[in-house]
Write a structure and sequence with these properties.
- With 629 residues, this protein is an alpha/beta fold.
- It has 5 domains: 70 residues; 54 residues, no CATH class; 183 residues, P-loop containing nucleotide triphosphate hydrolases (Rossmann fold, 3-Layer(aba) Sandwich); 81 residues, Helicase, Ruva Protein, domain 3 (Orthogonal Bundle), CATH 1.10.8; 171 residues, Ribosomal Protein S5, domain 2 (2-Layer Sandwich).
- The protein is 46% helix and 13% strand.
- Strands 12-13-11-10-14-17-18 form a 7-stranded mixed β-sheet. Strands 2-3-6-1-7 form a 5-stranded parallel β-sheet, sandwiched between helices.
- β15 and β16 form a beta hairpin.
- The longest helix is centred in the N-terminal third of the chain and has 53 residues.
- The chain starts with a helix and ends in a 25-residue tail after the last helix.
- The C terminus is likely disordered.
- The chain binds adenosine-5'-diphosphate and magnesium ion.
């Protein structure tokens, strides 16, 4: 039996040999038994493992089979799976227009047949989610024809001090919409330097209209797809900002602020401005097609407001459709009023300070305005005041809590540090060849000193102070004009002189045509050897014929002149009307002259024509003692 078993059981050859060799029967049977038990264990383990594996495999198969059957059952019954049923209900509730509904239905039936694990399933699913969650029919509730204009004015007045002209323009715009019963018309664009309240005014308008407010910033948008979305074929495609904003606010008639539209760029990825045109143009925006959605969405109920700092960068096609409302910079008095009536109460609230816990005089705020800010709006002013109040909060948070903290003029310097700005006061030193121009910058007006020196040379013009191309041309025009009119009557040999024109603050680039009159006056004063009154500042573009053309930014320029202590301001005749914008208190402290030609500018500056004694030619700067090294 031992021999027989030996052949049947699967034993290694060496063990078999060992069994055969042993003659003791009992020992032989014991060894065999031992081996057989081992073998049995091995076999048992093997079969167990196999059956486990089989089990797992068949479960997967079973699941798959069952799912396939379920699908067939649903198809037979004309139903769909629970998830797509949810989606279908959502889509039906969303109130899609016919065209979009058709697309949605097609996509829904595609969703039913694609594998859940496939990437396509998710693409379709996300798309359908977008369709379902857009506010196709949801309104904020208020209609344009029901606007209460008196209430609207109250809201605007409560939120913003002054800017009466702007508020009136806005209300007139709303009144037209009310009468016309729709929003088809130009698009409102608030134009002005930073911090004059463009964004916050738009917010107030939304409040006044009872509409939801949503802001989409366009600064730095280069890609058309950011406005109009990516096609769905791209991985990770999304709708553009407009549709995204609409979804976020959940109604189809919000007030949408497209902020900083002068900062959009365009490059090889398409032109965002033309996409914007489609969004804004009332003629086409009721069928706005986002690339991602691929069905049209009606944007005609959205109240769009744009903001921009400068007009020049806005594409002409867009500019055409805009109703531009100018919000120019604030005067010192206006800033003070805004600070006392709006900024301070709001900041106190933000810092958890009761109005009764602090004494703050107008003088202190005025000091902050004068010495710590130089800007068109009130943004830095807000920041500096917040800094002051943080100091107050620190004191009030101590134990025991002080009953009152006084902010005096000294505490300004302690908290904010040494003064940051010195008013660009004119100096009284009168020298030939110096004239004052008024310049406009995006952050307000500025005065520019223009200096001219004549050197021995060959009729060259040297320009320094980072002048832009247009300003260089103005300088050339001024010199040519001077030579053409007086070249013969003066004892100066223009062909033997070089003129060096410098505009200080050399590191700041300057450009624009409006320094023309001042350049001419400075040159004339140099060749006549007579100083221009320091109280006088001019602005205006000149032509080769000596006429003076109108310029922009008059309000900012006049305010800058006033700040700097100028008494006489000469403006182009055609800019006479711009004085309307300037507050009477500023106007009353200045004398205005309106000029048609450079001759008038010259006589205003007290530079009378010819009969000037020959001015001895100065030596070249590098030959002057003390200047050469
Ligand atoms: N006339 C004003 N009255 C009250 N607050 C103002 C006024 N103008 C500006 N502000 C305040 O100045 C801050 C900056 O305004 P913001 O709208 O951001 O400026 P912008 O968008 O023009 O750069 C806001 O907190 C705003 O409330
Ligand atoms: Mg803004």
């Amino acid at each position: 039996m031992a021999d027989l078993c030996c052949t049947i059981v699967n034993l290694p050859l060496s063990t078999k040999q060992e069994l055969l060799e042993s003659n003791d029967l009992e020992k032989r049977l014991k060894t065999l038994l031992e081996q057989m038990v081992k073998e049995k264990e091995r076999l048992l383990l093997q079969s167990e493992m196999q059956s486990k594996m089989m089990e797992r495999l068949s479960k997967d198969q079973r699941d798959h089979l069952l799912r396939e059957q379920l699908k067939t059952i649903h198809e037979e019954l004309g139903e769909e799976s629970p998830q797509s049923g949810d989606l279908r209900r959502k889509i039906e509730k969303a109130g899609l227009p016919t065209e979009a509904m058709k697309v949605a239905k097609e996509e829904l039936s595609r969703l039913a047949v694609v594998q859940r694990a496939s990437p396509e399933y998710h693409v379709i699913r996300t798309y359908l989610d977008w369709l379902a969650s857009l506010p196709w029919r949801k309104d904020s509730g208020l209609e344009t024809q029901k606007i209460d204009l008196t209430a609207a004015r109250q809201v605007l007045d409560a939120d913003h001090f002054g800017i009466q002209k702007v508020k009136t323009r806005v209300l007139q715009f709303l009144a037209v919409n009310k009468l016309k019963k729709d929003l088809k018309g130009p698009i409102l664009c608030l134009l002005g330097p930073p911090g004059v309240g463009k964004t916050s005014l738009a917010k107030s308008i939304a409040k006044a209209l009872g509409r939801k407010f949503i802001r989409a910033s366009l600064g730095g948008v280069h890609d058309e797809a950011e406005i109009r979305g990516h096609r769905r074929t791209y991985i990770g495609a999304m709708p553009g900002r407009v549709i995204q904003s609409i979804k976020r606010c959940g109604v189809r008639d919000p007030l949408m602020l497209l902020d900083e539209i002068d900062k959009i760029g365009h490059d090889f990825r398409g032109d965002p401005a033309s996409a914007l045109l489609e969004v804004l143009d009332p003629e086409q925006n009721h069928t706005f097609v986002d690339h991602y959605l691929d069905v049209s969405f009606d944007l005609s109920r959205v109240f769009f407001i744009l903001t921009a700092n400068v007009l020049d960068n806005i594409p002409a096609a867009l500019r055409d459709r805009m109703e531009i409302i100018d919000m120019s910079s604030y005067s010192r008095a206006e800033k003070l009023e805004i600070a006392m009536t709006h900024l301070v109460p709001k900041l106190l609230e933000d810092h958890g300070i009761q109005a009764s816990e602090i004494t703050l005089s107008r003088e202190v705020v005025a000091r902050v305005i004068d010495e710590y800010t130089r800007e068109a709006g009130v943004r830095n002013l807000t920041r500096e005041l917040a800094h002051l109040f943080r100091g107050v909060a620190e004191k009030l948070a101590q134990d025991p809590r002080p009953t009152k903290v006084e902010l005096c003029e000294d505490s300004v310097e302690i908290t904010l540090g040494p003064r940051k700005f010195f008013t660009e006061k004119i100096d009284d030193c009168r020298q030939p060849g110096v004239a004052t121009a008024l310049a406009w910058t995006p952050v307000g007006g500025e005065i520019l000193k223009i200096e001219v020196t004549r050197l021995e040379g060959k009729g060259n013009l040297i320009l320094t102070g980072q002048l832009g191309d247009i300003m260089k041309e103005s300088a050339q025009i001024a010199l040519s004009l001077l030579r053409a009119t007086w070249g013969h009557s003066l004892s100066i040999r223009f062909d033997k002189s070089d003129f060096h024109i410098h505009v200080p603050s050399g590191a700041i680039p300057k450009d624009g045509p409006s320094a023309g009159v001042a350049l001419y006056t400075a040159l004339a004063s140099c060749v006549h050897g007579k100083p221009v009154p320091t109280q006088l500042a001019t602005t205006g573009e000149i032509t080769l014929r000596g006429t003076i053309l109108p310029v922009g930014g008059v309000k900012e320029k006049v305010l800058a002149a006033h700040r700097a202590g100028i008494k006489i301001v000469a403006l182009p005749e055609h800019n006479r009307g711009d004085l309307i914008d300037i507050s009477p208190d500023v106007k009353s402290q200045l004398t205005f002259y309106f000029l048609k030609s450079v001759d008038e500018a010259i006589s205003l500056a007290g530079l009378t024509i010819p009969s000037i004694p020959y001015a001895p030619m100065p030596t070249k700067p590098d030959q002057q003692p003390g200047l050469s090294n």
